[in-house]
User: What shape does this take?
Amino acid sequence: MNTEMIRIGILGAGFIGKVHIQTFCLLEGVEITAVFDVNRQLAEQVADEYHIPNVYTSSDALFRADKVDAVIIGAPNKFHKPLAIQALQAGKHVLLEKPMALNGAEAVEIYRAQQQSGKIVMLAHQMRWEWVNQEIKKQAAQGAFGRIYHAKIGWLRRKGIPGWGSWFTRMDESGGGPLIDIGVHLLDLGRYLMGAPKPVTVFGAVYAEFGPRKKGLGAWGTPNWEGCFDVEDLASALIRMEDGSSVTLDVSWAAHIEKDNEVFIRLMGTEGGVSISNAHAVLCGEKFDHSVNIDLHPPEQLPDARIAFSQHFIRCIRTNTPPMTDALSGLTNNIIIDAIYQSAKSGKSIDLDWSVIEET
Assistant: This one.
């Protein structure tokens, strides 16, 4: 295994960029050597705070730097495609914040650039590394659930619209509302726990009942009252897989619901199931004709999901192996999301076209 120091460049010095900086600073064999943000003052503040030696005035300058082996892209969604492709063409490995791109067409371009470059592209879906999801994945691999034929997944917020009027609520800058913002995490996680079945048909609906009235606002992001809200604030979908299994997804930024900020996953298998709500998990089965529920308890030393997935990124670079959340998984999520929006607009189910991947 290559043990040389991995040098990291950060693109985007906002909240999520700082989260990545704080995490990678804890890893051995890793050095954060560069930062860039369109807000030069913010980049300099972050560099001073975390002792990052180089602040660049452009993304091009950072990509040309020989002091950078890999980059973390934490910029708004509309910049994901150009920055990721630039990085790959410059020979850098890429850790890319979700979603992979604004839409499937842009995600295809990133996927093709990754294939041509031979470099690592990893999507920041840290929820896969949370202890409860790792335990469920292990149980599934051991056959505890038999064949998982249906999953109900979702992330419901009661009042959580981020930065009203900012890029978060503009379709041309974000690619969508809660579906592409937080729903993408659940799409990724649900398919992972089910064994990554291939989606073939999607039926979806989206609603904007709160955002246009400036209701359901959350504390995240900086509002721009001169801006606009032209995305959804709730989305729902049914996804059918090639193997006959199915997934229902419900996600909201704002809704009149009892619980706020609930993340839930329910897997239904031929031999057992599991119900997860905000990291509390119950295995559901039957013994001697009686229903049996078993609570899962976290380990005494709770692993940090972000540290685990960041270590995974570095390990993939050192060993030149594909990451768990690779470019294909990110592209798949974008294609599903596109189909949900298309179905919502047409009122019809959408058959997914995978020829674009097969031709690559």
The radius of gyration is 21 Å. Residues 327-346 form the longest helix (20 residues). The chain has a mean pLDDT of 96.
